[in-house]
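Today's session is about reading a structure prediction critically. Students often jump straight to the picture, but the first step is always the sequence itself: look for stretches that repeat, for charged clusters, for runs of hydrophobic residues. Only then move on to the predicted structure, which in these notes is written as discrete structure tokens rather than atom positions. Here is the chain we will use throughout the hour.
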Amino acid sequence: MKTTLNVIVGSKNPVKVNAAKHIFSLYFPEHTIQCQGVHAPSGVPDQPLGEDETRIGAENRVKYCQAHYEADFYTAMEGGAEQFSYGAATFAFVVIANSEQFSVGRSSNLPLLPPFFKALLAGKELGDVMDEAFNNVNIKQQGGAIGLLTNHNATRESTYIQALTLAMAPFLHPTLYNQ
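Below is the predicted structure for this chain, in token form.
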């Protein structure tokens, strides 16, 4: 009989919960993965701007989950945007933690059109901007801006999966990372 690995995800968004379940199933195939999404406040604006604000949002979600739930692992994903020297982009920070370790990872960038970034600066969320531009409803719980702007060759979930995959390294090799 498989033992259960309990994972708390600091969001009820099914895209984030599915990404977490995918990663833990990949790395722990001998376990039954119990992955639960919960409301966890980020402590940052609904649309984080800048790498620090985005990372802090993901960290805050995980810390909230650790303080309020009992689990083997905790994870959170936070999407943000920034104007870099080469142009505006959206990205995500991911955090994975257990009782001994805390790992931060970051996704790759998706270039953003200048009018989209200006809308974010004006206080809109990227999901709402994308819904408006593509005449869609609730894209943030589907493929996200990534899906729409890559013709669905990548999705919000696939981007979270890649970032989470890399952020798992310290848990796979704790003796190396804890020297």
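Discussion point for the tutorial: The chain has eight helices and six strands.
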